[in-house]
């Protein structure tokens, strides 16, 4: 986490310095910093996915449900990243639509879990 904080702080100082010369330079530096931190986050997602797979094997969870959980986490992470970038660029309307599409995508991915839940409840009655 310290690396992310240091990268972010360095980028802020560079954006402030470059932004006083030309605003476009600051924007490019900010995008590069965001991409670098994003790639760091993707590496952390791999670590989480490996741990979840270990947990899945130890407990005996269905692989389908774990895959759905990981897809939902990925969708949430990607959509939040895109929303933040759009908001920073001053495009609030686009950010809102990306957030909406991300929520719909998570709902669609989670439909098999919802279906299994409804079947389970129906089997109890």
Shape: elongated
Say how many strands there are.
Answer: 0
- The helix tally amounts to 4
- Average pLDDT value? 85
Biggest sheet record: none
Please give the share of residues in helix.
over 70%
Structural commentary:
It is elongated and about 70 Å long. 93% of the residues lie in helices and 0% in strands. 5% of the residues are buried. The mean pLDDT is 85. It has 125 residues and is an all-alpha fold. Helix 1 packs antiparallel against helix 2, helix 2 runs antiparallel to helix 3 (63-88) and helix 3 (63-88) runs antiparallel to helix 4. It contains four helices and no strands.
Keywords for this structure?
mainly alpha, 4 helices, 125 residues, single chain
